[in-house]
């Protein structure tokens, strides 16, 4: 089969395939179930294969690469303009096939198994933190029904909830006391699980030389360092540190016309989790600027006074992103 470019619409069981030859003529348009997909591509000559970034995309890209193909992953928003009519699996595969052959198309870096394993650790930890926050908010709301108010924040809850449950004179019914105690036990269990994951991330960072270099940057800790190494593509794909900061969504949004530049708030594109870690890290740095007089601290102090705390935190995060790019090169 003389096919040079293929677009795959990934799914759980049935995959739509659209392939063209070197002249752009359609030579294959079919659907395959999951067990037959790799067998089909194993008998094809090396070709360019495109797929949307979704669940399982990195796995399939690695498998296609092992078969000798040039597999590339595309962000869904870059595929949508090439869809010619209604959205369905076959039209999506055709749009992917068209998009992957564009010379200026941007692609998502294919992650290794080890990188995805590290990201699993981060995602599980983040999920536990969200669950703990939900449990604390639930117990705060339920206690408010009985006139018992707890200030916001998990540290206040950690001290006040046991006191309320042990107070026999606050009018809390025994049924509610028992149910709320079960929630509190779950919160304590979540604390232990999150702490265990934090220690595993710290140990992982201590074993990695690149992570150690990144942690020398103010505001970069084990979580940020390991998450960046697991998520960021090869730094040589970026022309400069500013391009890396733009990949993280830490540069101003531009809406320019008529030769007049108009810059707005940051674009917030890219990985939200990495951007959040970087900004939270810089907030911790800014909170401790009062007793420091180095060049970076002086610049940050001046920026806080001139532009405000939040803008200064984002600007320092963008600066850290550029430093990270330089250290990874």
Can you walk me through this structure?
This protein is an alpha/beta fold and 329 residues long. It folds into three domains: 96 residues, Nucleotidyltransferase, domain 5 (2-Layer Sandwich); 95 residues; 110 residues, no CATH class. The chain is 56% helix and 11% strand. The chain is built from 13 helices and seven strands. The strands form two sheets. The protein has a five-stranded mixed beta sheet with strand order 3-2-1-4-5. Helix 11 packs across helix 13 and helix 12 runs antiparallel to helix 13. The radius of gyration is 25 Å and the shape is globular. The mean pLDDT is 92.
Major beta sheet, specifics? 5 strands, mixed
Question: Would you count the extended β strands for me?
Answer: 7
| Distance N to C terminus | 41 Å
Count of runs of 4 or more consecutive helical residues = 13
Helix content: 55-70%
Number of domains: 3
Strand order of the largest sheet: 3-2-1-4-5
Please state roughly what percent of the residues sit in beta strands, choosing from under 5%, 5-15%, 15-25%, 25-35%, 35-45% or over 45%.
5-15%
Structural class: alpha/beta
In one word, what is the shape?
globular
């Amino acid at each position: 089969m003389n096919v040079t470019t293929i677009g795959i619409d990934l799914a759980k069981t049935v995959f739509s395939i659209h392939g063209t030859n070197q002249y752009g003529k359609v030579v294959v348009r079919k659907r395959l179930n999951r067990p037959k997909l790799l067998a089909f591509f194993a008998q094809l000559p090396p070709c360019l294969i495109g797929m949307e970034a979704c669940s399982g995309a990195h796995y399939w890209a690695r498998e296609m690469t092992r078969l000798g193909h040039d597999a590339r992953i595309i962000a869904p928003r870059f595929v949508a303009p090439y869809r010619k009519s209604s959205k369905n699996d076959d039209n999506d595969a055709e749009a992917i096939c068209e998009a992957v052959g564009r010379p200026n198309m941007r692609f998502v870096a294919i992650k290794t198994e080890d990188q995805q394993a590290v990201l699993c650790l981060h995602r599980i930890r983040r999920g536990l933190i969200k669950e703990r926050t939900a449990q604390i908010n639930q117990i705060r709301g339920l206690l408010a029904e009985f006139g018992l108010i707890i200030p916001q924040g998990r540290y206040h809850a950690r001290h006040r909830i046991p006191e309320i449950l042990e107070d026999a004179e606050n009018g809390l019914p025994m049924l509610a006391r028992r149910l709320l105690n079960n929630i509190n036990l779950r919160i304590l269990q979540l604390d232990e699980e999150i702490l265990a994951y934090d220690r595993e991330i710290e140990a992982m960072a201590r074993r990695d030389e690149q992570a150690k270099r990144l942690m020398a940057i103010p505001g970069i800790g084990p979580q940020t360092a390991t998450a960046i190494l697991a998520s960021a593509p090869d730094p040589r794909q970026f022309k400069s540190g500013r391009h890396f900061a733009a990949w993280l969504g830490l540069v101003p949004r531009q809406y320019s016309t008529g030769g007049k530049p108009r810059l707005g708030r940051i674009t917030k594109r890219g990985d939200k989790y990495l951007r959040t870690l970087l900004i939270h890290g810089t907030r911790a740095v800014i909170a401790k600027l009062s007793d420091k007089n180095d060049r970076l601290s002086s610049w940050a102090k001046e920026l806080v006074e001139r532009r405000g705390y939040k803008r200064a935190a984002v600007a320092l995060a963008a600066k850290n992103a550029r430093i990270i790019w330089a250290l990874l090169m």
